[in-house]
Amino acid sequence: MLQEQEALAAPMERTFIAIKPDGVQRGVMSEIITRFERKGFKLVGIKIMIPSKDFAGKHYHDLKERPFYKGLCNFLSSGPVIAMVWEGEGVIRYGRKLIGATDPQKSEPGTIRGDLAVSVGRNIIHGSDGPETAKDEIALWFKPEELVTYTSNAEKWIYEN
Ligand code: UDP
Ligand code: MG
């Protein structure tokens, strides 16, 4: 019983997923959303925005020293991005699996990048790489009140309890 209460009280894991400008322009946003949705993950936040270069720099701050950093930030702010928060058991790690390896040449077929992208600088999607980054990225892109807490009718068919 106590365990049950704790499980109910424990907030479900959340991750930050973004469809980058290339994914939006190529018309694959619904395909990407569908893959997360069909897996059984729950969408709790979504918006479209054009991030400024400064904002893109904050998002990719850990890559500041890399030679591709400036081009990457310019690219992220070159058009609309779909910013999302997805929720579910293991969503951070499994979201990365759905996305595939950073370089689409190395992403497995069946993954988003493996199926839909060709080059590393145009790999259409971002996903948080761990619990700390997920927390930071969600806080950077969303205000708490932009995230929705709700029970999906499908949950009892997705989780054992
Ligand atoms: N990137 C790039 N050239 C590289 C490595 C990465 O343009 O040699 C870009 C690529 O778009 C990638 C992003 O920088 O998605 C962030 O890099 P990271 O290593 O965090 O990969 P990710 O977490 O997106 O798989
Ligand atoms: Mg990364």
UniProtKB/TrEMBL annotation:
Domain Nucleoside diphosphate kinase-like residues, every copy: 12-149
Gene Ontology biological process terms from the UniProt entry: CTP biosynthetic process; GTP biosynthetic process; UTP biosynthetic process
This protein's UniProt keywords: ATP-binding, Kinase, Magnesium, Metal-binding, Nucleotide metabolism, Nucleotide-binding, Transferase
One GO MF term attached to the UniProt entry: ATP binding
Catalytic activity line of the entry: a 2'-deoxyribonucleoside 5'-diphosphate + ATP = a 2'-deoxyribonucleoside 5'-triphosphate + ADP; a ribonucleoside 5'-diphosphate + ATP = a ribonucleoside 5'-triphosphate + ADP
Binding site for ATP: 20, 68, 96, 102, 113, 123
Names of required cofactors: Mg(2+)
Gene Ontology annotations for the cellular component aspect, listed alphabetically: chloroplast thylakoid lumen
EC number: 2.7.4.6
Domain of life of the native organism: Eukaryota
Localization of this protein: Plastid, Chloroplast thylakoid lumen
Chief place of localization: plastid
Catalytic residues in the record: 126
Subunit structure: Homohexamer.
Annotated family: Belongs to the NDK family.
The protein's role, per its UniProt record: Major role in the synthesis of nucleoside triphosphates other than ATP. The ATP gamma phosphate is transferred to the NDP beta phosphate via a ping-pong mechanism, using a phosphorylated active-site intermediate. Shows the highest specificity towards GDP.
Descriptive protein name: Nucleoside diphosphate kinase
Parent sequence residues shown: 77 to 237 of 237
